[in-house]
Amino acid sequence: MSGLCGKSKEAEIKRINKELANIRSKFKGDKALDGYSKKKYVCKLLFIFLLGHDIDFGHMEAVNLLSSNRYTEKQIGYLFISVLVNSNSELIRLINNAIKNDLASRNPTFMGLALHCIANVGSREMAEAFAGEIPKILVAGDTMDSVKQSAALCLLRLYRASPDLVPMGDWTSRVVHLLNDQHLGVVTAATSLITTLAQKNPEEFKTSVSLAVSRLSRIVTSASTDLQDYTYYFVPAPWLSVKLLRLLQCYPPPEDPAVRGRLTECLETILNKAQEPPKSKKVQHSNAKNAVLFEAISLIIHHDSEPNLLVRACNQLGQFLQHRETNLRYLALESMCTLASSEFSHEAVKTHIDTVINALKTERDVSVRQRAVDLLYAMCDRSNAQQIVAEMLSYLETADYSIREEIVLKVAILAEKYAVDYTWYVDTILNLIRIAGDYVSEEVWYRVIQIVINRDDVQGYAAKTVFEALQAPACHENLVKVGGYILGEFGNLIAGDPRSSPLIQFDLLHSKFHLCSVPTRALLLSTYIKFVNLFPEVKTTIQDVLRSDSQLKNADVELQQRAVEYLRLSSVASTDILATVLEEMPPFPERESSILAKLKKKKGPSTVTDLEEAKRERSVDVNGAPEPAPASASAASTPSPSADLLGLGAAPPAPTGPPPSAGGLLVDVFSDSASAVAPLAPGSEDNFARFVCKNNGVLFENQLLQIGLKSEFRQNLGRMFIFYGNKTSTQFLNFTPTLICADDLQANLNLQTKPVDPTVDGGAQVQQVVNIECVSDFTEAPVLNIQFRYGGTFQNVSVKLPITLNKFFQPTEMASQDFFQRWKQLSNPQQEVQSIFKAKHPMDTEITKAKLLLGRSSDLGQHSLKKLILTLQTLWALASSTPKPPRLDACCVWSRICKLRCTGSRCAQARTLFPRGYVTYCRSSFNPMQAVGLCVLFPCVSATLGDHTAHSTMEHLSTCTSSLGPGRGWDTKGLLTGTTAGLPVQGGPGSMKSRQPVVQSTN
Amino acid sequence: MQFMLLFSRRGKLRLQKWYVPLSDKEKKKITRELVQTVLARKPKMCSFLEWRDLKIVYRRYASLYFCCAIEDQDNELITLEIIHRYVELLDKCFGSVCELDIFNFEKAYFILDEFLLGGEVQETSKKNVLKAIEQADLLQEEAETPRSVLEEIGLT
Q1: pLDDT 10s digits, A801-834
Q2: What is the ipTM score, two decimals?
Q3: B123: domain range?
Q4: Identity of the residue in B23, B110, B126 whose CB atom sits nearest the CB atom of A75
Q5: Measured between CA atoms, how close is A36 to chain B, in angstroms?
Q6: How many Å apart are CA A992 and CA A7, to the nearest integer?
Q7: Any idea what the CATH number is for the domain that residue B35 is in?
């Protein structure tokens, strides 16, 4: 190789290409190669592959080698196949045949090679062929020990890859007894197999516990020479000991007192040995010994039942915290993290706080420092929170970028959880933003706002602190957001001080305005309108700002719209209305911290939950009220999460709503339901609804297949790209997607597509293009049926393809005069139709509200909703009692107000309220014109609709408009849109016309 | 264990063993990423690191890095000693591990298969593993002169 290193890369490639050409010609040559040459060339190919070059021939020659009687030829053949043949290969039948012969040969060396090959490839085809045979070899009395070992691990590999193909049976009890085998190699291999099987079938392998304990006991009490070659650097059978301790972690502490006593003795012996002087100075000795010790500690923590052992374990780890070996310090920190969650050892862990803080400051290796952060987080409680948070904050200043976000989340959680004094909490979070603003995610700043709003004792302090923080010449945008929100709500609390008078507050915020991104500017605009309400003296200043061209004619639609509407609101609305609409935010409902959810998502649920479970018991909630135990995570799994959001008492569980899954608080309204795994029709129906208002995304997903969509529509034409992803490692065969249109749909909708390749490789994705032409209006959607063969079984999946009428909507410009002209033309009594139909979803207002909540928008969004609903209820009562055209006005008012109080994406959630309420309204006093009115408004809200709402709205609209009769139905170019300009509520037509046509935002 | 990689200080891959099904593309990506990560670490750093949802255990012998990926609940220290035992076995068969890059590479795979199978330790006794290898050596045909492929390709 030294020669190779000396040469350049090009020389190597040249040399290899020459060799490949040579080998290819030998394989293709007329002269049949003898076994030796064949072996030689296959071996060369393999070597070239391992050097990192691609090899695309030689497989057949390798398979030929398998049937050779010469050991070395067979061996190279198997090696080539283990390394180079993937499970899809067509050669698999030939390979399986050769393996079958070798397994039956009763030659232990050949059997070994065959078993190694199965274990190395481990494909489904091999499992199908051999999963029945291998258990027999494993438990047969006359099988050689070395073959038994291979058979055990071979079976393990197959079980991991295809558990369904390895049937449990009589052999299982005999496998358990291999724990008693005389040959320690057999026991070692069997223990791995049993551990994996026991994890899935604990009942079936229960008897392994007592056998494992007695085996372990014999090992730990043996003298270091007893086990001969299984002793490793004076440690008796370390690998087997570790495996046995792992096996025991599949079960609770043994019930039989004798077994339990014996196990406790073992664990004590292991702990005692750690205190004995080492038998060798070699690192191998200490590593092997400590490997067993750490595994024993894992078992002690897993059982979590012997306080004595837990405390001893903790003391032992404490010693390691200061060990000179970095590896041991690392592992001690890691292991102590889990100990901290046990009630028995939490206090003992806490005594090491100074050492851990020191580790955070002095460790040179970032991975060790990260463990120290984890441990500080785990050992934190009320007594040491301030110290730990301070240390973490100071570490954050120099922390590696890769772990900053996680530290920010941890600090935020600890500060909240253990805050006694909320001024400390506010200071901490503002410090966080100052030190690591870029790493402060939305969840964190939402949370500080929630807490400030919920605790009136801290509001004045918060306002003062953010005001001071904003004075810094360069402050992070996140600080501007928090500052903007808090001053908008509580700026009045500090306005008495001439140094923070309303005008100074406004100027301070506005000085940051131009440096901020659109969402922040949108938030600031909302703060300004709140200022108008709070401080009448700055009203004209703010109106001037809103009126300036940079706001009113802003290129960003959201900003422009806010400016227009706020300006109107500030000039039109009376003080009372302004005060109602812009009233102070009511307290947030207390739920699982959104930050915690985020941390869980980052770390994976399992690791965090345990810690949190334990943590919760020691914590009190933010609102200061006694916390009902399941208030956070577990509450999310009941059907009415935070049902009291509206202050209406417990809402009945929504019958049609799917149970929301825990976590993921920040998903859009209603989107939870769709992300659930959908076996067939029911799930895909939900997904379908989501696509009413969007064009791209995942339509369907199960364990095998994922279907993604990308589509675009223009006028009456559309094109849809369907992506079929094979999620498995196995080929799909006879893959045939078919588009099915019902008879009446066929006339209205033209679909054209080409067939796709019938095989889809494992992990591969194929694409299908569908060209769509909408000929006339339609209600049903086409169905996409997919059939394929996967691993010998036939699969059949049907999903509705989301091609809906609204995809073909077109914007149209209409002056208000025209609109009302047409509106008035529709006033004849016969043009009003009432139809009563059964609603698909119950119409109970309580349930409707509960359903809204089910969507579980973010805390902030929901919070805004709550207030909105209160405001809207009043407005609605007003609107319902007025004659028809004003009702439409009321709708408009409503839609405007929906947008008013929410920032950025939250706005989207509020908007969903509007059509829902309107549909409900239309259903109760039905009028097709109102349906048309809704069509008019629909596109402008549809951009951000939740799936449920959009779906029911569409469904309802179809029903409504069909009753209008020919010519009056909503043709695709009819009354829709543009008419925002015609709505008489607010905003001059001129300012509106400059906007994008609203329909285009439906993507 | 999910996989084991051996690579040189220059980042050249010497041996790869995968115990989970992955596509070639994925394997290459993982290898590239890990070789880079491990080579960037300083000598006194600890032998373990978190990587994706796996734990990486690595150790350097002369100019060769041995790198194993294990799962969350697996034991790091015992994995270090798996590496060491493997090095001992290679040493026994090839003399010094420093010359690992010029041995019969196929033999390194055979030894590994005897020691580790399906990602689990199969036989920890050095004597038993070597016995299996010797037996295989005995089965080699007399006529065959054991030549390294490397020599034949002319790369040594």
Answers
A1: 888 888 887 777 777 777 777 777 776 666 656 6
A2: 0.89
A3: 3-153
A4: B110
A5: 9
A6: 71
A7: 3.30.450.60
